[in-house]
Design goal:
Elements (H helix, E strand, L loop, with lengths): L2 E6 L5 H8 L5 E3 L7 E6 L14 E8 L10 H15 L9 E6 L5 H14 L2 E2 L6 E7 L6 E6 L21 H10 L7 E5 L5 H9 L4 E5 L3 H13 L7 E3 L13 E7 L9 H18 E11 L2 H10 L3 E8 L8 E7 L4
Parallel strand pairs: 5-6, 5-7, 9-10, 9-12, 10-11, 12-13
Antiparallel strand pairs: 1-3, 1-4, 2-3, 4-8, 7-8, 13-15, 14-15
Helix pairs in contact: 4-5, 7-8
């Protein structure tokens, strides 16, 4: 049996997400036509899609050739809606879904209130006001001949990592961190330094891809380090990481001791300030260059795009290989993939 699916990814990371999705047996990708969305047909088991780590969510799609949503309340179409939902519910243990949420223009209209009520009664689910375990989306069909109903395949977005037991304001989301780890071209002999490691997201996403010879995270905030310890333990990676209370501007490390540097640099919004970043960024990038071997890489994300560009111009020891603009829901930082070149 085949299924239409839509994979929602951070806009700007479609190329990496498509490369990941192409490795799933039975998944055929459609040509791209909208940023942040990968349309596909799945002819294999749907749970294989749960392993997508660049994805925010995955939805099952069913199109209805109807003029208005009111027609979904008719017996034939309503049974098709229930069948779509049961396909999703059967992927999980009984009792996984407790609440229902419908995202649609006019969701508070009398027709859609009735639609939600009928679904709630038939499925035995409470109606959520702002979110739910079973998330449905209703939209006009892109073919302009009816309406599409989409059902999220999982009770929580794939971006909500199970290992994240401790969260911090401004923490990097899982799909973006995973993409950054992929851009470092992971190898088992990597020696990784995560400066300003925060709650440990970059370290965890990198080590879930594969092992490394060494992985160190440092941060000057003791609460951040405590949070990182908790998340690493939940991910069962405590044994693989060393955490230190180090200032990344002056690291107690010998030159050329790492080949991979990862960092979520302060954006100057929730974390840090632009005034502080004016001196922080040059110091961090100089110190990162000192401890990175020639030929090594740094993958950094920052919203301070102009400051990063100026700093890199002043530090020609870093060669910019890639720069990806990412949509983080109103913020548009860049991921910089840098190569440490031999200054000699």
């Amino acid at each position: 049996m085949s299924y239409r699916v839509e994979i929602i990814v951070p806009a700007g990371l479609e190329e990496l997400a498509r490369a990941e999705a192409q490795r799933i047996v039975g998944l055929r990708l459609e040509p791209p036509r909208e940023s942040g969305v990968i349309e596909a047909t799945m002819r294999g088991p749907l749970p294989a899609l749960f392993e997508l780590r660049c994805a925010i969510s995955v939805f099952l799609v069913r199109s209805f050739t109807i003029p208005r949503p009111r027609a979904l309340l008719g017996d034939e179409h309503f049974r098709a809606v229930l069948a779509l939902i049961e396909t999703v519910r059967h992927l999980h243990p009984a009792g996984t879904f407790q609440t229902l949420f419908l995202s649609a223009a006019g969701a508070d209209s009398s027709v859609l209130r009735r639609f939600k009520h009928e679904l709630s009664v038939r499925l035995g689910l409470a109606i959520g006001d702002e979110d739910g375990d079973l998330v449905l989306r209703l939209r006009p069909s892109r073919e302009r001949n009816g309406w599409d109903l989409l059902a999220r395949l999982t009770p929580r977005p794939l971006a909500t990592r199970p290992w994240r037991v401790c969260n911090r304001e401004g923490a990097l989301n899982g799909p973006v961190a995973h993409a950054m780890a992929l851009l470092s071209k992971p190898r088992p002999n990597d020696r990784i330094l995560n400066i300003g490691c925060g709650s440990g997201t970059l370290l965890i996403e990198r080590l879930l891809i594969g092992p490394a010879a060494q992985a160190i995270g440092c941060d000057t905030d003791p609460e951040a380090l405590t949070c990182a310890y908790r998340n690493l333990a939940a991910a069962r990676l405590s044994h693989a990481v060393e955490l230190y209370d180090w200032d990344a501007r002056q690291l107690p490390l010998p030159p050329a001791s790492f080949n991979v540097v990862l960092a979520d640099l302060p954006f100057g919004h929730l974390v840090g300030s632009h005034a502080d970043n004016l001196t922080l960024y040059p110091a961090l990038l100089r110190e990162a260059a000192r401890v990175t071997r020639p030929g090594g890489c740094a993958v950094l994300i920052s919203h301070e795009v102009r400051l990063m560009e100026r700093t890199l111009t002043d530090l020609p020891v870093w060669r910019k290989e890639q720069c990806l603009r990412v949509d983080l829901g109103g913020l548009y930082p860049r991921i910089f993939a840098l190569r440490r070149i031999d200054s000699a």
